[in-house]
Amino acid sequence: MDASGARVALNKLRQELLGSARTFEDVERLLLGTLEQIQIAGLIVQFYGHYLYELFCRDFYEQLVKKVGREQTRRSIDSIRRTIFSSLRAKIAGRNPGSVNWRGAEGRQLAERILTETVAIFEVGE
Length: 126
Prior knowledge:
Blueprint: H1 3-18, H2 24-37, H3 40-68, H4 70-91, H5 105-121
Helix pairs in contact: 1-3, 3-4, 3-5, 4-5
């Protein structure tokens, strides 16, 4: 797992969960509510989805800009994010996300498959 991408993904997850928090009590209330709505397994999937999206942006954003232009890339980026998250959810459907070795070979293979598919869908390659 790439440390820089993981930090950015963790920050985005934190923003999603705690973006409106102003006090410790707000944080506590938001986290308790979130944990009731989303089990820990869901948080793992959300984090890894953000992580894969960051990897895509780091590795392929400029290629996409060169191919379709900055404005079209901006319009496409949310679709790319949704594609990555949907692909991730589909690939681990029926599995406990806690049983996936995200940092090992299994996680790397999953990341490579999802990113390769996303690149193909959005025709980022040459």
